[in-house]
Every structure is written in structure tokens, then in C-alpha cells.
Amino acid sequence: MTYSGRKIAIVYSTVDGQTLKICHVIASLLNKNNLQTKLYPIDSFQEDPLSFDTMVIGASIRYGKHNTLISNFILNNRDKLSRIKTAFFSVNLVARKKDKGQPDSNPYLIRFLNRVAWKPDLSEVFAGKLDYPSYSFIDRVMIQLIMKLTGGPVRSEKPIEYTDWKRVEEFGWKICKINDLPDPAGQSL
Ligand SMILES: Cc1cc2nc3c(=O)[nH]c(=O)nc-3n(C[C@H](O)[C@H](O)[C@H](O)COP(=O)(O)O)c2cc1C
Fold first, then answer.
1. What atom in ligand 1 is closest to the CA of residue 64?
2. Whole-model pTM?
């Protein structure tokens, strides 16, 4: 594969793997489009952000918050991040709701970007996965409560994946675009 010379880091925080699954889809699309892309879990990211053309940061919500390692990383590197291209996405279950499923309507994403006082070039929110069978008793009760409050299912024997993969792909294309790659109309993964 001939790379464009552009280097992309995707730094992520995941607990049950859904954010990582989204990162893999984005990385695959970027790599196929000649952007040299590598995935890094936030707890082992040691590189200098300035050694990349673009940093993509993705994190899931757990009990109303993104991993503090993610917010600390952004707070500690805001200056460097302002000198490269950046994209951020949040993964949560509230985003499955139409009225809370956009970057300008998802309360977690809005609150987070305000709190770290950061404006990435791209921001996005994806609905995550609901997996009652895998939750501990306490987590199950808490998620049931969240679901009850937001009109979602309070039981399911199978995991429910709310992630809109087409939208993930579109986000990948937007990352290509901010790296000056032409709009690949009609292409897909
Ligand atoms: C213990 C726990 C707490 C969660 N808290 C919230 C929450 O407060 N709000 C929300 O919208 N989603 C919440 N979620 C849903 C997750 O954000 C969703 O399952 C997501 O897909 C997890 O991504 P990950 O596997 O990358 O960690 C919670 C999930 C778990 C298991």
C-alpha cells in the first residue's frame, strides 16, 4: 500500500469494546484511503501529538462521564492539539434518541467539550451497545434505571447494538476530507 505520508492516531477509551469496534471501522477506512492510521488505548499513548497530522479521540460514557484519562490528555495537550487536525467522538446510549443523537444535541458531548474548552475540527456522537446479559447486578439495575428514564428496553436476552455504522463510515470520510483527500462519493468500506 502506498501511503499519502499523512499519519493519523486514533486514541480511545473503551470498557466493553464498542468504542474500539468503532475505531477499527474508522481505521480500516482511513488505511484503505492511504492515511497511515494506528490505534492507541489512552492508557498507553506515549507519543507526541505533533508527530501526527491528525488525532482522532474516541471515548464512551459510563455513569455520565468519559474516562478522566481522556479529559486530562486533552487538557494537558490543548496547545499541541490546536496545531494539528483533530476529531472527537463520544459513544453513549442516550445518543440512540433522535433528539439527543447529534453533536449539537447530545448532552454528554456538549458538556465534555465545554468542560475541556476544546473545539476539535470534527465532533460526533454514536449510539453504543446495550448488553444486559454481560452486566453485573449493580450495573444492570443502573442501566435499567437509565433506560426507564429515557424510554428504552429494561430487559433483553441479547445485546442490542444501536450504533449506526453508516454514520461511522461518514465520519471516517470526513476525516479523509480534513486530510485533503477528495470526497469519495459512492465509495464504501
Ligand atoms: C456501567 C455502565 C454505565 C453506563 N452509563 C451510561 C450513562 O450514564 N449514559 C449513557 O448514555 N450510557 C451509559 N452507558 C452505556 C455505554 O456508554 C454504552 O454501552 C457504550 O456502548 C459503551 O462503550 P464501550 O464498550 O466502548 O465502553 C453505560 C454502560 C455501562 C455498562
1. 8
2. 0.95
